[in-house]
Amino acid sequence: MRTPMSHTKHRAIVEVGPGRVRRLCCGTGVTADDEMSERYTAALGAIDDHVALVHGRPVTVASLWDDALRSLECGSPDATKAMIVVHPSWWPVSRVGVVTAAANGAVMQPRSWLLRQASTAPEPTVVVEIAERLVSIAGDSKGERLVAVPRGTRLRAVAEEVAAVVARIRQGPASVVLIDAPSAVAGAPAFATSIAAAVRDADNGQTAVVVDDARLTRLAHSVRLPEDDLTKAAAAAVGVESRAWKLSGMAAAGVVLAVAAPAVAAVGGNGAPATGAARATFLVEGRVALTVPANWPTQRVIGGPGSARVQITSPSDPEIALHVTQSPAPDTTNETHEPLEGTAERLKRAIDAEPAGVFVDFDPSAVSVGRSAVTYREVRAAHQVRWTVLLDGSVQISIGCQSRPGGEDAVREVCEQAVRSAHAFG
Fold this sequence. Notes:
Layout: E1 8-9, E2 12-16, E3 21-23, H1 34-45, E4 51-54, E5 57-60, H2 61-70, E6 83-87, H3 93-103, E7 107-110, H4 111-115, E8 125-130, E9 134-138, E10 146-150, H5 155-169, E11 176-180, H6 188-201, E12 207-211, H7 213-222, E13 225-226, H8 227-247, E14 257-259, E15 264-266, E16 280-285, E17 288-293, E18 298-301, E19 309-313, E20 321-328, H9 339-352, E21 359-368, E22 371-379, E23 384-392, E24 395-403, H10 409-421, E25 423-424
Parallel strand pairs: 2-6, 6-7, 8-11, 10-15, 11-12
Antiparallel strand pairs: 1-13, 2-3, 4-5, 8-9, 9-10, 14-16, 16-17, 17-25, 18-19, 19-20, 20-24, 21-22, 22-23, 23-24
Helix pairs in contact: 1-2, 2-3, 3-8, 5-6
């Protein structure tokens, strides 16, 4: 006896990020007016904050997203609940939670889900998504094998690195590689073509397919899902919203991007996964990228002792944390010493101006996990911070590893991972 097929249904699909908010399908196309376009831009730009400025006036980010999604409804009763909202697969749970809260029951899906509709082949599918500052590679349909590669200026080298990652994480002797090419991301269409060529040149039996804006829109029009699948997806979205709002108090107000997924393998400079990178996040702040623990909340610290910095704190002990600061490296063109020597001299002068005993163990020519660095230790009442200062091109990167006195082992592994992976780009 044949089991009856589930009833299938098409829903309006809305794209949120990267770079824009728009409705991909549902009746006639939607053209946003200037006012709404500005609100879309503000909603995306401030998704990690609580308040944004629109026309010079403060507006809550929650209301921006509520307005954005309502403007894209199809006009039917409970229209928002009839939508599928597609977001970048590498967005952290806090960002997905912001949109989920505004979506009012809409089904949330990663962008890789829609992109996978472009393949009807029986072979496993790998999805490559291009963002402004990274390329993410999803190795399975659940997003549990996500690799982040920093998108630097040497695009051919990055394309080859992406192809190498695809070869490592593919699930069979041959794979279909779908490469997202959103026009809203600067240079993405041309870069997608380069990645496709690198994948094909690898000669691993992989088929590379570039999905541009037009093809993505056609995919959105053609999607039909069983009602029971939509119900399950909506229930899962509610769970994401609940978890995200628990973390919202520690959302990274100043962090440009935190790539977080159930399991992210961070990629080092040679294309290999960083040591100890299981359950890791590839964090991008300004011109610096590094690997940090995925489940450690991130926030910007602008008060108290020390420079303004990004702080990544252990969820089990508030005295265990990483601190990251960055600044332009001083111009050393007319100096006789090496750049790191000049950095050491400037740091030593600053340390000598502080009260005795606050900064100790200064080493101007240290080696930290194989990298030349300046190191010193900051002593505070409840904890100590071991600082490693690196130079990468024109950027000075400082990484502080905080622990309780005598408890350095608690932060050693994540500290070494951060120092090993830290690099400048752009």
